[in-house]
Amino acid sequence: MSDDLVLKTEELTKHYGGVHALVGANFEMKKGEHVAIMGDNGAGKSTFVRQITGVEQRTSGKVWLYGDEVNFAGPLDAREAGIETVFQTLALADDLDVPDNLFLGREKTFANWLGPFRLLDYKGMRNDTIAGLERTGVKIPNIRNSIRNMSGGQRQCVAIARTATFASKLTIMDEPTAALGVQETAQVENIIHTLKEAGEPLILVSHNMRQVMELVDRIVVFRRGRMVANLRKEDTDGQDVVAYITGAKTGAEFEGAA
Amino acid sequence: MSDTSHGTGGLTFDKTKRSWPNEMNILLALIIIIVIFEILGQILPYMRDQSFLFDSKDRFDSIFNEARLKIIILQVAIIGIIALGVTQVIITAGIDLSSGPLVAATAMIAMSFGQTELVNGFPNPKALFGTWAMDLPVIVPIVAGLAFGAFIGAINGTFIAFLRIPPFIATLGMFLICRGIALWWSGGNPISFPTASYKYIGSGMMPVVWFLSLAVIFHLIMRYTVYGKHTYAIGSNEEAARMSGINVKRHKVMVYTIASMLAAFAGIVLASKSETAQAGMGEFYELFAIAMAVIGGISLQGGRGSIIGTVLGAMVLGVIRSGFTYIKLDGSYQLMAMGSIIIAAIVLDQYRQRNKA
């Protein structure tokens, strides 16, 4: 496979017992590309994401990350390999501050011979956090405040800033604005713009047509567990995409799939 | 890098502006309680202008009533050691009810390896084992006690983390088991007459030395190590901790093990201080340890609180106990007052929680 592909899947399939949640997904994305995944509830979007991020084990198929075939045993493996996921449910510890949350589970430390009692490098983590926040354009008045006192948008921004802090190879956001208000959504969309300018590849799972049309280069539509369309933004519009989502249309190369 | 580098819309990041730490509230409460007792000492007709903590007589050099201060802290030191462990457990949103009976069981086990062979030239009348267990170096009772504590804690942690037994139930079971072990170890008989070196561990102000040194150590651990950070993270959002790659189960076993080792150490010190071990020791200690933590601002919902808070909570309990004796109210009132204060502390915590949410 060519080197400019960030992610490639071949015949990615997942069955839950008798339910074929995902069938034969062939997906590719290039460096610096932002791709949206759309589809109705139960269409296989989240299942697809869960196979890539190692949250679940695929039934069959292959996955490559930057040309290397990968088999993640769990979400940690995926993260180590450079896939950062922003989950729908915020995975943040309320009582900790911003650097603590960014570095949770992978703290910068010294005196590592102390094992579990190794010392935290607070200063290093704080500096990296500020650098990461600046890179993403996330604005938080005081990073030493506990997350509890922050708005939903700020919290989501913190979750997203993780990806920038760790210079991820691929960012996946699963409906990052589903629970946010208008202003907060704009805040998150701004960050996505920043990631685009920085050339960081992104997979965005979203139901929000306006958002998708504004933010991404390409839209992949799932329906009933299968990929049914692969549309460049320039060649399509909202109505067209809806037609694919509802099943009124199916992409030429996917004929016979659904 | 300027301090305002990531201010947003006029908001600036002011490093000097830190929120009022919760510990200050407890310190304030402690001072208020002391002031109340001072005032009561002045106005109660039968008190004759005594002072609670200050020296009202001229024959001492110090301005403080040192004897009373010493008693206050000595009274809470041993339970305070337990509270240091309970604090960590509560921060993970758990609870440990087994510490009181664990103190008794550990006291029995440690003392049985810390006995001296000859008492005033006669064989030790309370000897549990043969001469092989007599006059052993002091490290033996300490290691035996700590090993037993670690074993009990590891069982607690394993049941809670791996078998998902609620902490309340798992440690309630262990509460009964440990009381049983304490009785079974010597068939209900007291074990007495420790060696001189074992006697030293809990003599005089030694319990206070242990309590305060351990408090400093665990304050540093909770604040500056990965262990501490993960303990807070688990209590704050267990799911997030797991998704962040923290081995939550292993960490919980570690926390319960450390907590039980601290309770075991309290038992070792208590047996030394009392120069005897009895199966009924440590009654209600688990509850007083939890009370210290709760009064010290450790949230039962997990994730919040600090070792400093617990030390202050211990001081509050000590001052109240001593203060009630000082104004000559008997034990029944003390218990009622302490109960009210514990409830007040929890009400306050929930009120704070609701205001922040």
Question: Brief description of this entry?
Answer:
The complex is a heterodimer of chains A (258) and B (357). By secondary structure, chain A is of the alpha/beta class.
Structure, described:
The complex is a heterodimer of chains A (258) and B (357). Chain A has 258 residues and is an alpha/beta fold. Chain A has a single domain (5-254), classed as P-loop containing nucleotide triphosphate hydrolases (Rossmann fold, 3-Layer(aba) Sandwich). Chain A contains eight helices and twelve strands. Chain A has a six-stranded mixed sheet, with helices on both faces. Chain A has a four-stranded antiparallel sheet with strand order 2-1-4-5, with helices on one face. A two-stranded antiparallel ribbon of chain A has the order 7-8. In chain A, helix 6 (182-197) links the parallel strand 9 and strand 10 (202-205). In chain A, helix 4 crosses helix 5 (152-165). Chain A starts with a strand and ends in a 12-residue tail after the last helix. In chain A, 44% of the residues are buried. With 357 residues, chain B is mostly helical. Chain B has a single domain, classed as ABC transporter involved in vitamin B12 uptake, BtuC, CATH 1.10.3470. Chain B has 13 helices and four strands. In chain B, the strands form two sheets. Chain B has a two-stranded antiparallel ribbon with strand order 1-2. In chain B, strands 3-4 form a two-stranded antiparallel sheet. In chain B, a hairpin with a 2-residue loop joins strand 1 and strand 2 (122-123). The radius of gyration of chain B is 22 Å and the shape is globular. The relative contact order of chain B is 0.18. The model of chain B is unreliable at 1-16 (pLDDT under 50). Classes of the chains: A alpha/beta (258), B mainly alpha (357). Chains A and B meet through helix 2, strand 8 and helix 4 of A and helix 8 and helix 9 of B.
